[in-house]
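Entry:
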Amino acid sequence: MPKDEFDFEDPLELNGVALLVPEDTTGAMADCFIEEFMRMGHSPQHILTLFRDPHYLGPNLAYKTKGEPFIRDLIVEVFARWGQAAAWGEPGGGACQRRHPPADAAPTRSDLPARADLPPAPAAPVVENPVSKGPAERP
């Protein structure tokens, strides 16, 4: 079966399922996102930035639903659970050096990080074409 066709009989096919529950699970979902980002090495400031970013649908839903103070407190709580301090320093500080646009801004090409830290690409070696100089002599 080709990869782009969905087979309902395939037991190994991934299936997303929405479960409707009476209680609000947004806090537990946000807790899980924070822990995952923390374990990947992101700083508290960067995690908060990810929650503000509308391209991260799940975290941004929690941010809009619960508000920034709730997310900040939850970040501090999750970091403390893992024995790490979550100090709120300068906005935009921490491990992430990427610039994120405001939540209501449309992404543009200028939002991409500058790569000034990379050295310039080496010039391709010049190879002379013996054909362009005339017929090549054969032994």
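Helices lie at 26-39, 44-52, 57-66, 68-81.
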